Amino acid sequence: MPKTGKGKIYIGVGGWTYEPWRGPFYPEGLTQKRELEYASRKLSSIEINGTFYGSQKPTSFQKWHDETPDDFVFSLKGPRFTTNRRVLSEAGESVERFLNSGITELKDKLGPINWQFAPTKQFDPKDFEGFLKLLPKRHDGRALRHVVEVRHPSFRDPDFVAMVREHGVAIVLAADSDFPQIADVTAPFVYARIMGSSETEKLGYSGKAIASWVEHAKTWAAGGEPDGVERASKETPEHAGRDVYLYVISGFKERNPLAAMAMIEKLGKG
Length: 270
Description:
It contains nine helices and twelve strands. The chain is of the alpha/beta class. It has a single domain, classed as TIM Barrel, CATH 3.20.20.410. Strand 1 (3-4) and strand 2 (7-14) form a beta hairpin. The chain is globular, with a radius of gyration of 18 Å.
């Protein structure tokens, strides 16, 4: 993977099974069972959406591991049954069930777990900290990285930033969307989901926007803080380097793989 400073940069999309990608992204005649094999050689990471909607079998994680290159990484969305509840601190059994579902069969390809919350879920400091305490740093002999995708404006709070930083959990940077942007770095990695790809742009994003996101990723990976993003706190912790996971999500989804590939190409050119 392209390396800047001490951090690696992974760029990809959400999921890999999407009928409109057949033709614009997947070659004509490619069988569906080979789509992950193809996508994983054009992208460097994929966020698995299926884990949000239901449990997957350990054999599925094994298969996904075996079909992808050695340096490929998956991120996983935590199940909605865990995050879509009134009292988050009572989700312990649900968290444990997910962790025991076979995710470690991804082995070294297991990236961050994205715990996504409903846009209506507001910041309740006591309850949210109770949820963070349920997220283990290791499971089945493997280190875990956790990231929370909070989408209610009440989370744009320095106290929330300080809380997740204390637990070493990252905050999803939601970009080009109506969701509040919280670009504060709170973990040894950065997780960005950019959602503004457009039908009017051949590659989903303009060349200028593609270059801008690549520069942001390089700055984060080198341990810096890019301009042009919105933070909720004035604290800027120093870090020697961070891994960066950047996903082109939503927007005009048909163009997302092309945007991700253009960013990977730009990154490779330095």
